[in-house]
Amino acid sequence: MKFTGVSAALISISLVFISGCLQTRGEVNENQQRNVIQQQVSTMQKTNADVGSRFAEVEEEMRALNGRVEVIESKLDQSHSILEGTLKSNKQQGQDVNAKLSLIQEALVKMEKEINYLNSELQNFKASAAANASAMERNSRQVPKEAFELAQEYFTKKDWKQAILQYQKYREEKVKGPHFGEATYKIGVAFQELGMNDESKTFYDEVISKFPKSDDARRAKIRLKSLKK
């Protein structure tokens, strides 16, 4: 097929136009892709910025958290130190209490031994005292009665002669005895009961002379008056 010059020229122009149109579309696609990529890059940059900001916030929070952890650890260390001190103090107090309890127990054991010893000594003393009392009682039964005691018994029985003898024996043995005045007065009474008034008057006068303020002297005066009647 053969083309004319005009046709050829038209074809050439058409090819050029078509070629221009094709380049424009390629460029358009390339621009669109570049815009998309730029948008993606922008988005990624923004995202990276947001992520970086978030990382910064996280790092700040971590630093704050670390600060809090350090404070808590410090407080824990202080609490641990206080707890150790308290435990150590309680342990020392417990040891002191145990030591005191040990001393108290030793003192109680010693006191118990002393009490047992004293009880033993007390039992021995009681036994010894009982034995001595029994021996004294036996001895008192075996010891002869004194003259004044015998004289009193005879006087009560109205055995006047024996009473005079025992009272006189007492007067000879106990010149300054506590019953000398009474013995003298009762000798006078015994003689009077035997009808021996002169002898009785002699002993009444002696009582009045030696013991003027005594009850025996007062009674002797009364008996002297009865003898004069």
Q: What does it look like?
A:
The chain is mostly helical and 229 residues long. Helix content is 89%, strand content 0%. It has a domain at 144-228: Tetratricopeptide repeat domain (Serine Threonine Protein Phosphatase 5, Tetratricopeptide repeat). It has helices spanning 5-142, 147-156, 160-173, 180-193, 197-210, 215-228. Helix 3 packs antiparallel against helix 4, helix 4 packs antiparallel against helix 5 and helix 5 runs antiparallel to helix 6. It is rod-shaped, with a radius of gyration of 73 Å. The protein starts with a helix and ends with a helix. The mean pLDDT is 80.
Low-pLDDT segments: none
> Quaternary status of these chains?
single chain
- Report the span from N to C terminus: 225 Å
Shape field: rod-shaped
Count of individual beta strands: 0
Strand content: under 5%
Structural category: mainly alpha
CATH level 4 superfamily of the domain at 144-228: Tetratricopeptide repeat domain
Mean pLDDT: 80
Return the CATH architecture of the domain at 144-228: Alpha Horseshoe
Question: Can you tell me the CATH class of the domain at 144-228?
Answer: Mainly Alpha
Radius of gyration from the CA trace? 73 Å
> Main beta sheet: strand number and arrangement?
none
Topology-level CATH name of the domain at 144-228: Serine Threonine Protein Phosphatase 5, Tetratricopeptide repeat
Number of helices: 6
Question: What topology emerges from the helices and strands here?
Answer:
Layout: H1 5-142, H2 147-156, H3 160-173, H4 180-193, H5 197-210, H6 215-228
